[in-house]
Structure formats: C-alpha cells, structure tokens
Amino acid sequence: MTTTADDVWRLLAELAQAQKETEKRFQETERILKEQSQKTDRQIKQVNQQIGKLGNRLGEFVEWQVRPSAVGLFQERGIDVHELQSDVAVKREDEGLEIDLLVVNDTEVVLVEVKSKLTQRDVDEHLERLEKFKRLMPRYRHMRALGAVAAMVVTDEVANYAYNQGLFVLTQSGENMTILNSSEFEPKIW
Prior knowledge:
Layout: H1 5-76, E1 83-92, E2 95-104, E3 108-117, H2 120-136, E4 144-153, H3 156-164, E5 168-173, E6 176-179
Parallel strand pairs: 3-4, 4-5
Antiparallel strand pairs: 1-2, 2-3, 5-6
C-alpha cells in the first residue's frame, strides 16, 4: 500500500484535530484543577479559622481554671492579694499592653499570663510586658510588681527558664492549680 500526498494531508489534519481536542481537554483539566485548588484553599482557610477559635476557647478555658485559684495560691505564698482583674488592656500613644489576670492588693500587683501550653517565647513576651507595665499603667508605679505564667502544659525546661527569670509558674495538678516554684523561691520585683 502506497501512501499518497492526500493520505499524508488527511493524517496531518487528523493529527491537528486530535491535538486541538487534547488541548481542549488539557484546558478543561486545568480549569477543574484551578477550581478544586480554590475550593481547597477556602476549606483550609475555614479550618484554620475554626482552629483559631478553638485555640482561643481553650485559652479562655485555662484562664477560667486559673482565676478561682489565683488569689488563694498567692495568699498561700504570703502575698496578701484580694482583688482579681481579668483581660486588662491599656493603650498609650504608640504602645499597648494586655494582661490576662491582674492580682492586686494595696502594695503588690501580680501580672499573670495564661496559656494552654507555655513556651519560652511566651515567657519572654511576658517579661517585656512586665518591663513596660508601670510606665503604661502609672497608677501602679508605687507598688511591687511580680510576674507569673500559668498554663495547662508546662515542660520542665520552660518552667526552669521562667523560674530563672523570677516568675511564678502555675500549672494544672489534677483538678487544681498549683504553683510549681519551691517555697524558697524569691520572685523578681519590677
């Protein structure tokens, strides 16, 4: 069988048509993949938002675990506090400050940062907060300011780091909160 020029042209036309159909399928596949990618991105964003809300709720839960114990725990350590304020915030000029719990008496104030799992970064951020506290909240400038961190989960490494920075460390112990620092612990005064 001999191939004629008409056969070659016919085959080339079929090939061109097949190429067009392949390109159409490729474009359709590309469109579907793009739609699926956008849908997946939206779902991931929604899941991230839900996880963020859950994290906030967990933080609130931990704070509500610490609140009823805070005054009593510090009183047991000889810090005769009697007032508890939560979610304290101040904004002055270009600076701001947020404090989860403020435990107060007439001469002392304890700033408590509450987390679900405490990290060294959380401790460092709280130390920065303590450094600017009296400047941003001058009504406490004549009081002894102490620092504390509280969490459901505190590794030994992070607890030791916080102790060495002069902070009280509160954590869950069974159904109650407890201060991990030894009774000989001397907190840093800000």
